[in-house]
Amino acid sequence: MSLDPVQVMKGQDPMPNTCPSASNGDSKASWDDSKDIHDNVGSAKKPKSPKPENAVTIAVSSRVLFRTEKEQKVFEQKGIEEYLRYQVEHENEPFAPGPAFPFVKALEAVNSRLRELYPESEELFDIVLVTYNHAHVGVRLINTINYHNLFIERFCMTGGSSPIGYLKAWHTNLYLSADAEKVQEALAEGIAAATMFMSEKQIEVSETQLRVAFDGDAVLFSDESERIFKAHGLDKFFEHERENENTLLDHGPLKGFLELLGKLQKKFYAKGHRLDCPIRTYLVTARSAASSGIRALKTLRAWGLETDEALFLAGAPKGPMLEKIRPHIYFDDQMFHVEGAVEMGAIAAHVPYGIAQKYPHKKSTNAGK
Asked: Number of C-alpha atoms within 13 angstroms, CB side, residue 64?
C-alpha cells in the first residue's frame, strides 16, 4: 500500500457528524441552504484570538483541513487561471472536511474548556490556515470556515510561494500539510511538522477530548537508536539500549509539541481536572518494554514530561492499538506504521525525519523502535 496525501482521500465520503451538504465541488450545494446557520454564526460573539507569542500555534494547510482533491485536479489539468476561475465560480459551495478537521475541532473544544477555567488567559491553541492559494480563493475558504462553525481568524495565503518563512513569523509550534517537501523544509528550520493522511474509512473520534499519539524514536526522541538498529540489527540495538539506559536520548522534532500539550494539561490539573482532562497523550512505540523501554521512560521523566499512556509493542503492528485509542492525530517517522494506522481507519501523519527516510521499513522486519 502506497499513500499519497492527496490521492488517499479520493472517493472518501464526508466525515461523520459533519454537515452533510458540504461539497468538494461535486455538487451545487448552495450557501442559501444553510442561511439560518450562517445568521447564527454571524450574530454570535466570537472569542478574541490570543497573541501568537502566548498561544500554541497550529498551522494547517487548506488541503488537509478540507477536501480539495477536485480543485487540485483542475489546477493540474487546466492551469492556474482556470483553477482560480473555478474557485470563484464555486465560492458559495463549502468544502467537505479533510483529515485535519477532527483535530482542529478537538483543539477548539479544549480552548472552550480553558476559557471557562482561565477567562483572561491567552495560553490557548491558535489555528492558522496556511495555503499556497491566491487571495481570490479566500472567499470560498472563509465561507467554508463559517459553514463548519470553525474559529479560524488567521490566514496566510502565499499565492504559490513557500509558506515556511511565514511559519516562523507566526511562532508556529506545529505545521500540518499535504506537501511532504514543505514539511521537510519546516523540519529543517526547526518547526515541528508532519504530512497528514487519512483512509477512505475513518473511525469516529472523541468530540470532548483531544487525543494525540506519538511514536518514540525520530519523533519524540532523536534517531540515535534507530541508526544503531539500521546499521547493526536488532540484537545490537537491544545491547546498545541496555548499556545506555541511564543516558538520556536527545530530543526529536515533536518533543516541543508534547511539552506544550503537557503545559496545557497542567492548567487543567491545577483546577482539579486530572481525571477528566480534555487532553490525553499516548506513546505508541515498537520498542520492547523490558529490552529497551527503560531508556525512553527515563528520558521523558528527566525532561519533566509524561504521556498519559505508554504502549510498548515489541514490534507488533500499531494499527490495532491505534484503532482502540482513536487519536485525532498519530505521528510516526516510518511510512510502514503510517500505512498500518490508515488501514485501520486512524488519522495518521508522517514525520519525514531521521535515518528511516533513507532505509524504508520492510514488512518482514521486526523494528526495534
From this structure: 31
